[in-house]
Amino acid sequence: MQKSDFIIEVNHVSKQFEDGKFALDDVSLQIKKGEFVTILGPSGCGKTTLLRCIAGFQVATEGDILLNGEDVTTMPPHMRDVNTVFQKYALFPHLNVFDNVAFGLKLKKMDKKVIEKKVKQALKTVGMTDYEYRDVDSLSGGQQQRVAIARAIINEPEVLLLDEPLAALDLKMRKDMQMELREMHKKLGITFIYVTHDQEEALTLSDRVVVMREGKIQQIGTPTDVYNEPQNCFVADFIGESNILDATMVKDGVVNFCEKDFECVDKGFGEDTEVDVVVRPEDIYIGKVRGERLEVKGEESPWQLHGEVQSCIFKGVHYEMTVLTDEGYELMIQDYHAFEPGTKVGLLVKPEDIQVMKKERLCNTFDGEVLEDNRVRFLDEEWDIPERVAERFEVGEEVEVEVDFNRVNLQDDEEDGVLCGEVYFILYKGDHYHLTVRTDDGDDIFVDTNDVWDDGDRVGIRVAPSYIRLYKKDRAGAL
Ligand code: ATP
Fold first, then answer.
1. Cα 156 to ligand 1 centroid, rounded to whole Å
2. φ and ψ at 210, to 5 degrees?
3. Domains 3-228 and 364-472 share a fold
4. Measured between alpha carbons, how far is 119 from 104 in angstroms, rounded to an integer?
5. Å from CA of 215 to ligand 1 middle
6. How far apart, in whole angstroms, are the C-alpha atoms of residue 412 and residue 423?
7. Is 14 near ligand 1, meaning CB less than 6 Å away?
8. CATH class of 3-228
9. How confident is the model over 412-422, as a mean pLDDT?
10. Close Cβ partners of 179 (under 8 Å, ≥ 6 residues apart)
């Protein structure tokens, strides 16, 4: 058999459960031997399902999984050279530490002396020497998790899968254990695949981070990559604090946001192209406005934005401030100095600190069908359209429907909407919110609004007839 460069290859894996829901949707991922890879994403995004498919506790509906070049997609867990550590330690309460760790080897009827040596070695690796004869019940959460890890590594697996192993520990213990896991990874030299929803943990621990959302991989990269160069708004928002703003790429190297032109390092987006930009709060220089100039690294630079501090919170190491710019954009800024609310400040962003991202979409688009009586059907509902629009199409004609984000009207009362849905994802864009509303049929509608909604709010969805644009399917007849 030809050995692969990768210890694990996940090729176009999808997992659909009986209820029809896709927990994984065409996931591909390659992991090198000895890597520490973290799968990161919000609750329900499919992290555990991916880990379970790699472990063999679940079988992918489509695609295949290779371990050392060998197809293991349908191989039972115990035949794969992987071991899993779960969030709940799953130790045997009636056995002491030694017997818990030795359990697997005893089943294999290994020589007693060898078992003893291996248990001692495993306990040493997890920092639990001298705990052999303690009752597992008498141990703290962190100690129990160490025993669980010792039990997994004693089998000397090529791959250790860790499913939120630190989730049950308090913050201090978590931090300590994170450092110890890194050390263990180095010492053991085996591949770690780690699942967490905690972005800080992912950035601290990993060689590479896999960011997931709704069963799909959003980005794979080093912690620095995913932090400094997020590929979309979801990644930018999920990892770290960020200012995410609508922007226009004026030309190569110049981007306009907050109604000002900024120099940037990005190229190749085209001229006058709508984009999103991300600026991290720690990358915005802030200073009291005395004159119009601020010295940055020895150079005199003019302020790019002016504004007033709205709030200032001490965050332990830095202060976190919100500044309302004169143009009406709210920006989050972190600085070691406090600027009290009411202070007039100047702001400056350096070109390399502006991350430009292609917009995922410019407006809502749906497939539709023109009906009688000046109506169009899309998203399985009938919507009124102006007569002058309807009369340009045949009854029964299939059309493309477009609705601008800021033309979707959300109602408190579901009854007032043509459609009902739930607010599902909220992105603050400095001067408005960009919401994803998921309809009861599972379709997404994107909405720009100044109204404040919460995740999970039930809403009625309306669009005024004149804001529904129809296009011929071949796009020739734009109206
Ligand atoms: P969490 O961080 O909350 O554990 P996760 O990212 O690990 O979430 P998964 O446990 O992989 O997410 O679940 C992904 C999706 O698949 C969820 O919507 C979940 O409800 C669904 N799911 C998981 N297991 C099953 C199952 N056995 N049957 C049906 N649906 C399932």
1. 29
2. -110, 110
3. no
4. 11
5. 9
6. 11
7. no
8. alpha beta
9. 92
10. none
Q: Round to whole Å and give the CA distance between 56 and 77.
A: 4
Minimum CA distance residue for ligand 1 atom 21? 23
Q: Write the class of the CATH domain 364-472.
A: mainly beta
Global pTM value: 0.86
Cα(255)–Cα(263) distance, rounded to whole angstroms?
6
CA torsion 114-116-122-128 (nearest 10°) is: -170
Length of the chain: 479
Distance CA 469, CA 477 (A): 11
Model confidence at 269, in pLDDT bands (50, 70, 90)? very high
23 Cα: distance to centroid of ligand 1 (angstroms): 6
48 touches ligand 1 (CB under 6 Å): yes
| Ligand 1 pocket, residue 53 CB under 6 Å | no
- pLDDT tens for residues 331-388? 999 999 999 999 999 999 999 999 999 998 999 999 999 998 999 999 999 999 999 9
Ligand 1 centroid to 45 CA: how many Å? 7
How many CB atoms lie under 10 A from the CB of residue 43? 7
Of 10, 19, 45, the residue with max ligand 1 atoms within 8 A of its CB, to mutate for a pocket test, comes to 45
**pLDDT above 90: percentage of residues in the chain:** 70
Q: Show the tokens assigned to 229.
A: 């160069």
Is the distance from the beta carbon of residue 17 to the nearest atom of ligand 1 less than 6 Å?
yes
Say how far apart CA 295 and CA 192 lie, in whole Å: 46
Task: Determine contact, residues 467/474, Cβ cutoff 8 Å.
Answer: no
Euclidean distance between CA atoms 379 and 368, whole angstroms: 8
* Residue ranges of domains in the chain: 3-228, 243-358, 364-472
**Is residue 197 lining ligand 1, measured as CB closer than 6 Å?**
yes
Whether the Cβ atoms of residue 102 and residue 91 lie closer than 8 Å to each other: no
> Going by C-beta distance under 8 Å and a sequence separation of 6 or more, which residues neighbour residue 18?
none
CA of 192 to the centre of ligand 1 (A): 21
The CATH architecture annotation of domain 243-358 reads Beta Barrel (2.40)
To test the pocket of ligand 1, the residue of 10, 40, 48, 213 to mutate (highest count of ligand atoms within 8 Å of its CB) is: 48
Q: Which atom of ligand 1 lies at the shortest distance from residue 50's CA?
A: 11
